[in-house]
Amino acid sequence: MEELGTKLTHNKQIAAQLMAQGAMEKQEIAKAVGVNRTTLWNWEKNDEEFKAEVDRLKHEIKVFGMDMIAGKLAVAVSKYWELIEATDNQRVKAEGYQYFINRNLGKPTSKLDIDAGLKVNDKLDKDVLEAEFEEWDDLEEDI
């Protein structure tokens, strides 16, 4: 196994790989590399080179996964489109088309931003309110 420029011991390199993969409990990792859990904990908390290697390996795994997904994306989109085209259910077809439209043009909204021009902290004057109420009372009396 190549250590890719790190100065980590073989045990630390294996532990870093297992931790980056995230498939095993830390107790299992410690057992697999022949150290106790406290030693692994100390590496994880206090050994800057070990932490950096775990982070590097996590990033490498993430990039690899993203590359795999990106490689399959065109096929997945094509297959999804084929499913939309093949369905006899008009509602499903419409929802599929709507999804593609929304992904490309953005989801339309009917919400109006009524408060856009209002200042939230504006306070109503008590005298103005009382005058409004009196005006309404006068109108009611006339009716």
Please explain how this structure is put together.
The protein has helices spanning 10-21, 26-33, 37-46, 48-86, 90-105, 126-142. It has six helices and no strands. It is mostly helical. The longest helix is centred in the middle third of the chain and has 39 residues, at 48-86. Helix 1 (10-21) packs antiparallel against helix 2 (26-33). Helix content is 71%, strand content 0%.
Short description:
With 143 residues, the chain is mainly α. The chain has helices at residues 10-21, 26-33, 37-46, 48-86, 90-105, 126-142. Residues 1-5 have low confidence and may be disordered.
Using the CA coordinates, give the radius of gyration.
32 Å
Question: Mind summarizing the main beta sheet?
Answer: none
Proportion in β-strands: under 5%
For the secondary structure, the number of strands is 0
Overall pLDDT confidence: 85
- Percent helix: over 70%
List the total number of helices. 6
Q: Could you name the ranges where pLDDT drops below 50 across 5 or more consecutive residues?
A: 1-5
Order of helices and strands: HHHHHH
General form: flat
Distance, first to last CA: 94 Å
Structural class: mainly alpha
List the main descriptive attributes of the protein structure presented here.
single chain; 143 residues; mainly alpha; flat; disordered N terminus
